[in-house]
């Protein structure tokens, strides 16, 4: 009889230990470190800096986006890409708690891309963009006033490293004054 009691106690103990291991696995398995950082206000101006020099500034005038101090309109899909990429950023994980590692991740002043978004003249988002990760569609960033280097989903450089000529709406060439269609030269 005592032998049967020992087996029951052993079996129940094993079940309890396995249950505890299962609970611990569930807890650590569901610790997704990714987070989505959003801007609540409407972005109406975006400035892009490289090596502390402003490379591009687009601002919203009414319902359309244009280059700053210019009547040149920005292509709608480009303006949408600019705003959407800054409005909602998916941070996958913290890479380094020390900003001293900035050079290692391409976040030093000479190689980083600095993006600043405004809403009614107030800065609502600042992103310092470094190197691409080895996977390609992720980049190292420092967000706003955070003191850590993070890995973000997406490619800010492919969106923001553009020249102003490539994002403006091209104006159609005017027809000749006499209304005749333009002729293309024939090459023989």
Structure notes:
The chain contains 4 helices and 9 strands; from the N terminus they run αββββαβββββαα. With 188 residues, the chain is α+β, with helices and mostly antiparallel strands. A 9-stranded antiparallel sheet has the order 1-5-9-8-7-6-2-3-4. It is elongated and about 95 Å long. It starts with a helix and ends in a 21-residue tail after the last helix.
Protein topology:
Layout: H1 2-29, E1 35-38, E2 45-50, E3 53-61, E4 64-67, H2 76-87, E5 88-96, E6 113-119, E7 122-132, E8 138-143, E9 149-153, H3 156-160, H4 164-167
Question: What keyword list fits this structure?
Answer:
188 residues, alpha+beta, 9-stranded antiparallel β-sheet, 4 helices, 32% strand
Distance between the termini: 108 Å
User: How would you write the strand order of the largest sheet?
Assistant: 1-5-9-8-7-6-2-3-4
Radius of gyration: 27 Å
> What profile does the largest beta sheet have?
9 strands, antiparallel
Number of strands: 9
Helix and strand sequence: HEEEEHEEEEEHH
Mean pLDDT across all amino acids: 86
What portion of residues is helical? 25-40%
In short:
The protein has four helices and nine strands. It has helices at 2-29, 76-87, 156-160, 164-167; strands at residues 35-38, 45-50, 53-61, 64-67, 88-96, 113-119, 122-132, 138-143, 149-153. A nine-stranded antiparallel β-sheet has the order 1-5-9-8-7-6-2-3-4.
